Amino acid sequence: MYGKAFAPEYQGALTTLSVNSSLTDVLAEGTERLREAERSGSPGEAARCGLAVAEAHRRLGQVRDADRAWKASYRAAREAGDTAAMAWALWSGGTLARQRGAFPLAWRLLGLAAELGERGGDVVVRGYSLAGLAETGRIQGDYAAVARLHEQLLAEARRRGEARHTVWALEGIAQIHRNTGDHDRAYVLFAEAAEIAERAEDRRGHAWALRGLADVLSVRDGDTERALELLARAEESCRAMNLASALAYNHKMRGNVLYRAGRYPEARDLYRLALEEFRAMSEPRGEALSRLGLAKSLARLGRDRAETAAELDDLAGILERCGLRHAREMVARAQEEFCLPAEAVR
Questions:
Q1: What is the pLDDT of residues 217-263, one digit of tens each?
Q2: How far apart are CA 311 and CA 178, in angstroms?
């Protein structure tokens, strides 16, 4: 049985904030409480409030502000001698590093966060940090290395009745199944995640689950209209909470759905929108995936073959350097489809 979802990253004076609070509201209140803690000479409270500020900036796509905020939170936690708060700050920094495509740094910071969480006796930040490591590996396409960790974290979350973490783990495992071709299993897991998130009033988790369901319905069943309907529902939550990254990925997925349906002009426009959004928040993975979708759409609409080849070659190099295996494989398939002679494709 799962209770109502909560946001453990909202700490200190900010524990009354909801998991569904608008990020602009979180940022405003967090900044106010942080200043109060700094004025009163309370580094422990400053660290806790600074964590919420860092996370709000990160989720709003304000990368530089988020980077400054998590580092300030860590310094305040260290001054206060609060090991668990140090772990939370490192978790935020590691999550930001992953969002920016700095995967080696993400591995290092999240690993340190897990160690400090265990040392500080905070099982939640330890779990979130291990989850961050698992998600980093999954995003890079190293499924064999992190599938078992996903399952372990799912079991722990179910045992503690933590709805939000259960939803995260289900969605991660579902994504692995989807990317490895088991669409039926992916659908079942995304559906369970959506049901738990909805009951627990976790709008962020619910929006991501709907996105996953829309993807499977599109690629497995060709059910374009149902997929678009689910994405429209998810977008409502993204806009209500000002989830910049989730909204950009929603738009990118809508482009995918339209592309699969052969609606190339509409797909092109959605990919362009998503590309602008990802560039504004300095999120290289989303930017690369949007560029790939846009390149494929333009190729379908008659773009010069040499231009398509050059674009895909550039993307392949970027993804190779980033270590994004699954995305690199997607580019390779596009290169075969649009750039090579028919003899080579066979």
A1: 999 999 999 999 999 999 999 999 989 989 999 999 999 999 999 99
A2: 26
Q: Is the Cβ–Cβ distance between 44 and 77 less than 8 Å?
A: yes
Q: Which pTM does this prediction carry?
A: 0.90
Total Cβ atoms within 10 A of residue 341? 7
Query: How far apart, in whole angstroms, are the C-alpha atoms of residue 251 and residue 269?
Result: 10
Give the model confidence (pLDDT) of 117-158 as tens digits.
Answer: 999 999 999 999 999 999 999 999 888 889 899 999 999 999
CA 42 from centroid of its chain's CA atoms: 32
d(CA 164, CA 245): 18
Phi, psi of 202 (to 5 degrees): -100, 90
Instruction: Count CB-CB contacts under 10 A for residue 121.
Output: 10
| Two structure tokens written together for 11 | 């700490």
Q: What tokens were used for 43?
A: 């580094």
Among all chains, which residue has been given the structure tokens 């990368």?
63
Cα–Cα distance between 109 and 54 in angstroms, integer? 15
Angle value at C-alpha 95, between 278 and 175, nearest 5 degrees: 75
**How far apart are the C-alpha atoms of 329 and 170, rounded to whole Å?**
24
Using an 8 Å Cβ cutoff, are 233 and 226 in contact?
A: no
